[in-house]
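Severity: low
Component: inverse-folding endpoint
Summary: output formatting inconsistent between runs
Steps to reproduce: submit the following structure tokens with default settings.
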């Protein structure tokens, strides 16, 4: 995933290339924080249960795919 491009297209993300290798995304209406890496790995914090993580993963994946930010090789 191209984190620079994602950062330009979406307002609710932060990306500090010199400080941290991942993009920081804070979910609206929740305290869940996602760290998205160019490899496609996502780390979720502050989720209360597995169902929250599963729902978050599906929403985030669908959102990125809809915006043509997912690359399949």
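Observed output (run 2 of 3):
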């Amino acid at each position: 995933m191209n984190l620079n491009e994602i950062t330009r297209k979406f307002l609710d993300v932060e990306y500090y290339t010199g400080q941290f290798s991942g993009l920081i995304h804070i979910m609206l209406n929740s305290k869940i924080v996602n760290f998205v890496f160019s490899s496609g790995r996502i780390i979720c914090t502050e989720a209360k249960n597995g169902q929250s993580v599963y729902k978050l993963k599906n929403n985030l994946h669908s959102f990125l795919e809809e915006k043509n930010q997912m690359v399949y090789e």
